[in-house]
Amino acid sequence: MTSINEIKAPIKQEMDAFETYFKTTMKSSVPLLDIITKYIHKRKGKQMRPMFVFFSADMCGKINESTHRAAALIELLHTATLVHDDVVDDSYERRGFFSVNALWKNKIAVLVGDYLLSKGMLLSIDNKDFDLLKIVSDSVREMSEGELLQIEKARNLDIEESIYFEIIRKKTASLIASCCAVGAASSSANDDTVLKMKLFGEKTGIAFQIKDDLLDFEGTTILGKPTGVDLKEQKLTLPVIYMLNNMSGVLKRKTIRFIKHHNNDRKKIEEVMSNVIKSGGIEYARKTMLEYRDAALSMLESFPVTASQKALKELVLFTTERKK
Predict the structure, then answer these.
(1) For residue 81, how far is the Cα from the chain centroid?
(2) Cα 170–258–276 angle (5° rounding)?
(3) Which phi and psi angles does 306 have, rounded to 5°?
(4) Cα atoms in the 13 Å half-sphere on the side-chain side of 144
(5) What's the pLDDT score for residue 249?
(6) Which residues contact 137 (CB under 8 A, 6 or more apart)?
(7) CA-based nearest residue to 89, from 147, 131, 138, 130
(8) pLDDT given at position 190
(9) How far is 125 from 69, CA to CA, in rounded Å?
(10) Residue 98: which H helix or E strand, with range?
(11) Count of CB atoms situated within 10 Å of the CB of 220
């Protein structure tokens, strides 16, 4: 599998410049805020989302100052949602490090998230990037709706596959869709191209989330057993939904009871995970993921073959072949 650094190569210069630019967008006159934003920035992830922005802009037109602002807007709003998510989920770890709320408590974490959201909005407003702000604001709205829909449906732990796809389309895929759309829009692409890139990003994002579902079964603990983190958190993923939809009523109710009331019982969770594998849920989820991946890849065929077009293909492949 091509590494993320190899994929990034065609836009390395732009990404290096973006790093410096992004730091300046988070600056504040309040010392505590500067300490926290520097902590967040040092523990950044793979930065795949800015890569989607830059590759989309380059494939659809030309990277310019507006593209850098679009990437910064995405990162500011995405970082804000992560900080808020850790508060909502009562999570004390993010990418192997303490989360903001773990170190500075919930009140400060919420305010830091609000600050990052406002910085993103002001960055766009000050530069009259209203089209970019609308695309990303729609994404933030959908992410909130997706999270609330998941909370609502998780109460009875019995959701239809169509609801699952609605949740992940809003919660995960909408942000990657907005990355590709703002990239295209920043390069002055026409409305049809921007919409096409949004749909490309949505399909990629759905494939990305299904891969996350599969990683819960592919990942292992020290003992070599699947992690089952999603089941412990009572999150119904595609392999589990497939199993439940193909069970008898009695066994289905028993399994839901295990997930709902015995999610901290390792043996019961391992039994559920074993049943998922036996049901063919893993194969079904993998097949579905590849369908979305291939649909996304086929959408790139109508664009000229360039370094960025090839890199976007590699980035799509990376999202479905990654190990974490």
Answers:
(1) 11
(2) 65
(3) -130, 175
(4) 10
(5) 77
(6) 121
(7) 147
(8) 94
(9) 11
(10) strand 97-98
(11) 10
Look at the alpha carbons of 84, 321, 41, 220 in this order and tell me if their dihedral is positive or negative.
Answer: positive
3-state secondary structure of 80: helix
Are the C-beta atoms of 181 and 209 separated by less than 8 Å? no
- CA 196 to CA 202: how far, in whole Å? 10
CA gap 27, 55 in Å, rounded: 26
Measure Cα distances from 178 to 7, 53, 133, 209, 226 in Å: 20, 9, 10, 16, 33
Residue 45 token pair: 């992830």
- Which tokens sit at 158? 């019995």
In whole angstroms, what is the distance from residue 212 CA to residue 289 CA?
Answer: 10
Q: For the whole model, what pTM was predicted?
A: 0.89
Q: How far is residue 63's CA from residue 11's CA, in Å, rounded to a whole number?
A: 10
* Residue 93: its H or E element: strand 93-94
What are the tens digits of pLDDT across the range 60-95?
999 999 999 999 999 999 889 888 888 887 887 776
* CATH no. of 4-217+295-321: 1.10.600.10
pLDDT digits (tens, 9 = 90+) for 257-310: 777 776 676 787 788 888 888 889 999 999 999 999 999 999 999 999 999 999
Residue tagged 């969770």 (tokens):
269
Instruction: Identify the CA nearest to 82 among candidates 49, 129, 125.
Output: 49
On whether the CB atoms of residues 243 and 293 are closer than 8 A, the answer is no
